[in-house]
Amino acid sequence: MLTSQRKQHLLSLLRRDGQIVAKALSQELGLSEDTIRRDLRELAAEGLVQRVHGGALPASPAAVNFTARQDLASEAKVAVGRAAARLVQPDQIVILDGGTTAVQVARHLPLDLKATVVTHSPTIAVELAQHPGVEVVLIGGRLFKHSVVAVGAAAIEAIGHVRADTYFMGVTGVHVQEGLSTGDLEEAHVKRALSRRAAETVVLASSEKLGVASPYVIASISEVSGLVVEQDVPEDVTTPYIELGLSIIRA
């Protein structure tokens, strides 16, 4: 089998099974593990897979810049954002992450809602600037332009002074075994800090983020309370999360 054919076969298996286990596949194909791992390294360099211990997972298509993400599964993000906005109760303090799905949460908060939104996203702050009943607390720090959010030590120090009811977390990858992940190390640290300052964390999980992984782990699945997903996500996709005790909110 030629290298190009072998790589296409790996991608086909990944689409079918949702993961590649290098040892098992090497035995199946009669190839060395080194050969499989080399192919996976090259596919990872092309952004087609995310390598994990022992093999690979699908790479998240959501790990692109903010502008590009605005056009990715936009209808799904509107639905997820609308459903998440309905979870916000009067007089709550909620943390709203950065990102295009979080923007939809902000846009769908009822105009008569009185609550406090804490965010490290200038984009979210601007979205809520004209909301009559929402007080906005903006966390500062170094601007990570890829996601248009504040990161760094100053942001994490400020986050330590917050105590919120719910954190609506944006991610680029949600996986039962590999947890929640994103494409930047500092951003992962900030998201972890935000999650620790909320009574519960709800993940905004449009379908392109389910079953995929990005390079930097935020937290394990067990550390969050629930997922907001699209209405038509198959039950066999959500069942493993339910078995781990998560609530599934369908948009």
Compute the number of structural domains.
2
Q: Which sequence of SSEs, written as H and E, runs from N to C?
A: HEHHEEHHEHEHEEEHEEEHEEEHE
Which structural class should the secondary elements be placed in?
alpha/beta
CATH architecture of the largest domain: 3-Layer(aba) Sandwich
The percentage helix is 25-40%
Provide the descriptors you would attach to this structure in a database record.
15 strands; 10 helices; 7-stranded parallel sheet; 251 residues; Arc Repressor Mutant, subunit A; Rossmann fold; 3-stranded antiparallel sheet; 38% helix; alpha/beta; 2 domains
Offer a quick outline of the entry.
Helix content is 38%, strand content 25%.
Structure description:
The chain has 251 residues and is α/β, with parallel strands linked by helices. It is built from 10 helices and 15 strands. The chain has helices at residues 3-17, 22-29, 33-45, 66-69, 74-85, 100-107, 122-128, 153-159, 185-196, 235-243, and strands at residues 20-21, 49-52, 55-58, 93-96, 115-119, 134-138, 142-144, 149-151, 164-170, 173-175, 179-182, 198-204, 216-219, 226-229, 247-250. The chain has a 7-stranded parallel beta sheet with strand order 6-5-4-9-12-14-15, with helices on both faces. It has a 3-stranded antiparallel beta sheet with strand order 1-3-2. A 3-stranded antiparallel beta sheet has the order 10-11-13. The model has no long low-confidence stretch (mean pLDDT 90). It comes from Deinococcus hopiensis KR-140. It holds the Pfam family HTH_DeoR.
